[in-house]
Amino acid sequence: MIVVENLTKTFRLSKEQKKEKVAHARGNRVDAVADVCFCCKPGRIFSLLGPNGAGKTTALRLIATMLRPSSGRIAVAGFDTVKEAGQVRRHIGFLTGSTGLYERLTPTEMIDYYGRLHGMEPALLARRKGELFRLLGIEEFAGRRIGKLSSGMKQKVSIARTMIHDPQVLVFDEPTVGLDVITAKSILQLIRQCRTDGKTVIFSTHIMGEVSLLSDDLAIIHRGRLLYNDTYEAYTRGMKAKSLEDEFIRRVEEA
Amino acid sequence: MKLLAIIFKKELRDMLRDRRTLFFMIIMPFLVIFLIFNLSMRLGMDMEKRAQEKELCVAVFSAEPLPDFSKLLQGSEKVKIDTTVDKKEIDQAVRNGRLDFAVSFAADFSETVDRDGTGDVQVYYKASTSENELALERIRKVMEKYKQQLLERRLQKKSLAAAFVEPLKIVEKDVSTIREKMGQRLGGMFPYFFVIFCFLGAMYPAIDLAAGEKERGTMETLLVSPASRLQIVTGKFLVVTASGIFTALSSVLWLYIVFRQSRMLPTEVLGVILKLIEWKSLLLLFSMIIPLCAFFAAILLSVSVFAKSYKEAQSIIAPLNIMIIIPVLIGIFPGIKLNAITALIPILNISLATKEIIAGTIPPMLMAEVFLVLFALAAVGLVFCTHWFNREEVIFRGV
Q: Cβ of A178 under 8 Å from any chain B Cβ?
């Protein structure tokens, strides 16, 4: 479970951002996320939608304890992200489309590293690694350096890294960005599998096809503020435009 | 501690698989030391040999014949007397290399000398040619012999003993040991190698483990792991420090091997140098290298994590190389000694302390002060680096 209450994150604008004139800036500062509330439940997929720069990545980084909230509170798997950041990180798996891997390590070494960081016992780590490698088809290239693998193979290793400690909560930040159709499809399958396994899943995207395939709950974020937060079903029921995409654009433009 | 060990082990493995880092740790020190040592020795020896073996073309100008001087000049090895150059052309002939030297006696030279006066002689040469500078010694010897002949003749005429013009016989007794003398010279050269290689050895791992991780996107995943920022930064810091230490030691080892294998150094000189490098000195040097590398690692990691990319980190760090060399160079200047003030200046204190360690003359209090300063800097560096890693605007700058 992820509970986000009145979450705000304020950044100081960089020189480049000042030149770009960020629309919702207040002087030298900008609220990347402003007074946001939502809840992601176990066994459901929560989609966070928004145009570029809307605050999706910031919100997910706050959930993953990479950033500290300026105000508000987040609880992940029952742990506070500020006071119990270590515990939150033990219960979370984080995957982004731009997730990098250590190119000089092999998939086995990479997964062992993250498994050990999560404090997994060697026997449990070996068993879990074996399962994931079989499931994702990593076994055949498990001993090769990651730098020599194709982008599809690398993404499989990234998934294994995210899942090795069997986290209760999974955060996917635009996980299919820049991937080919086949690899993107396998990621979407994995996200669905996570729901079946009773995990709490939050994923951000701006690809409407993915939203319709996966979402149970949906939130739209724009200029740091939530424009919509309800079930996917309620969203489709209340659509004034013809398609998901048009409805999304309508809501953003009206804001 | 367990997480720290896991991070350290992984970072070490990752670093040791980086060819660029390995090149800087092992190959680069060898290449630099081998090339500097062999090239400088060979060039120096070749130049001296050429200067000794070169046939010097010398023209002599005097109002009257000076048979004694001519005899001395002709008696010198590999000297050719040129009689074709006109006195008015001396400057031009020496400048364009037609003559190596021209000796011009004043018009009243013989008369002045006969009156027991001082005769003027001018020696023309072109000092901008290094070979001529060395060959000048050969001409000086001839002039000295001639001067001696004239002096002896004068003394005989006056029935005076040679001691008449030498009321003092100064015997200089240098009480410093060979170790002390060589230590000051060799010790000045040592910091050049290990300070610079400490820095170079730590540089690439620092860039790779911070800016490189940010660029590749691995930093984000590491930050979501259960390891705390302190554990992450300390793990990286220890690996960067270890790399600097290893590179510095590798440079000292290559220096030893290159010295030992050299056939260009006279055996007795080589023997003295090898005796100087004793275990006690090496241990003291090693103990200074550890905090120095830790200090460098903290600075480099802080800069690297601030950079948006690998390239930006490189461009910020490159000028630091020069800033490191300056205090080392100052330490080589004569007259600058290790004292309570200079011991406080980082890098310069290492440069000066190394000379004293090799010469075996370092006062224990100053050694303690140098250690204290270096360890304090390393500790401050690590605290700053950790604080820097904790700042969101730094760690996510450009991400």
A: no
Q: Mutating which of A113, A118, A170 best tests the B interface, going by the most B Cβ atoms within 10 A? A: A113
Contact B228 A94 (CB under 8 A): no
Q: Which of B7, B224, B393 sits opposite A64 (nearest CB)?
A: B224
Closest Cα partner for A100 from B273, B197, B211? Answer: B211
Alpha-carbon distance of B209 to B190, in angstroms, equals 29
A117, A158, A171: best to mutate for the B interface, most B CBs within 10 A: A117
Question: How confident is the model over A114-131, as pLDDT tens digits?
Answer: 999 999 999 999 999 999
Q: Give me the torsion for CA of A121, A127, A133, A135, rounded to 10°.
A: -130
Calculate what percentage of chain B has a pLDDT beyond 70: 94
Whole-complex ipTM: 0.87
* pLDDT of B265 higher than 70: no
- Please report the pLDDT score of residue B268 as a whole number: 66
CA angle A112, A117, A118 (to 5 degrees): 100
Question: Could B226 and A90 be called an inter-chain contact, meaning their C-beta atoms sit closer than 8 Å?
Answer: yes
Cα separations in angstroms, A49 against A10, A79, A149, A209, A229: 20, 25, 31, 12, 10
| Torsion angles phi and psi, residue A171, rounded to 5 | -115, 120
Residue of A nearest to B218 (CA): A100
B165 or B199: which leads in pLDDT: B199
Q: B216, A68: Cβ pair inside 8 Å? A: no
**Do residues B31 and B73 touch, judged by C-beta distance below 8 A?**
no
CA dist B332 and B352 (Å) reads 8
